[in-house]
Amino acid sequence: MHEPKAKQVFEILVREHSDRLMAFACAVCRNRSAAEDVFQETLLRAWKGLEGYDRARPFGAWLRGIARNTAYELFRKNLRTVDDEVLNVIATQAARFDGVEGTEFRERMEILEQCIAALSGPYAETIDLTYRGGLSVDRIAEQVSSTTEAVKKRLQRGRAMIAECLARKGLLA
Questions:
Q1: Helices 59-77 & 84-95, crossing angle to 10 degrees?
Q2: What is the DSSP code string of 133-160?
Q3: Helices 4-29 & 32-48, crossing angle to 10 degrees?
Q4: Domain spans of the chain?
Q5: So what's the architecture of 1-99 in CATH?
Q6: What is the pLDDT along the chain (173 residues), one digit of tens a residue?
Q7: What is the value of pTM for the model shown?
C-alpha cells in the first residue's frame, strides 16, 4: 500500500497533468467518451503502478505512455485499428507541453479553439465530426454525402489551416 505522502504527491502531479492527459486522450481516441474511459483507466493504472515509476522520467510522459497502452487495448476490444505514426506525432506534440504551466496550457488550448472556430464551413464541419464527433472518414463521407477522398482532403486542409493559424499566433514554429 502507498504511504500517505505518496498519495499527496500523486494527487498534486495528477492535478498538474490532468488537462494535458485529457487532451492527449482526446487526440488519440477522437471520441470524448472513449477519451474519458482512457483517462480514468490511466489514472487507476498509474496509481497501482506508482512504485514502478522512474522518477528520472517526466511524470507527464509516463502518464501518456500508460494512456497510449490503455487506448491500444480499447481499440483492440472494439476491433478498431490505430495508426502508430499518428500516435507518435500526437505523443511528440504532447511532449512539447511537458514544461508548460497549467494556466499557460489552458491559454494555448483557448487559442486552438479560436483557430478551429475560424475555419470555414466544410473544413469546420469535417474537423468537428472527426475530433469532437469521433467519426471515421468513411462515416463522415456518408453523413455529408461526399467521397472518402474528398473528406480526407478537407481534413488535411483543415488541419493545415489550423496549423497556419497557430503559427501566426506564435504557438507553432
A1: 160
A2: S---HHHHHHHTT--HHHHHHHHHHHHH
A3: 150
A4: 1-99, 101-173
A5: Orthogonal Bundle (1.10)
A6: 556 677 788 888 888 888 888 888 888 887 778 889 999 999 999 999 988 888 888 888 899 999 988 988 887 777 565 666 666 666 666 666 666 555 566 777 788 888 888 998 899 999 888 877 778 888 999 999 999 999 999 988 998 898 888 888 887 65
A7: 0.56
Are 28 and 38 contacting, i.e. CB atoms less than 8 angstroms apart? yes
Neighbours of 165 (CB within 10 A): 19
Neighbours of 142 (CB within 10 A): 13
Classify domain 101-173 at the CATH topology level.
Arc Repressor Mutant, subunit A (1.10.10)
Cell output for 159: 488541419
> What are the C-alpha distances in Å from 11 to residues 8, 19, 51, 82, 132?
5, 14, 15, 30, 28
Q: Are 33 and 71 in contact (CB under 8 A)?
A: no
**Grid coordinates standing for 136?**
471515421
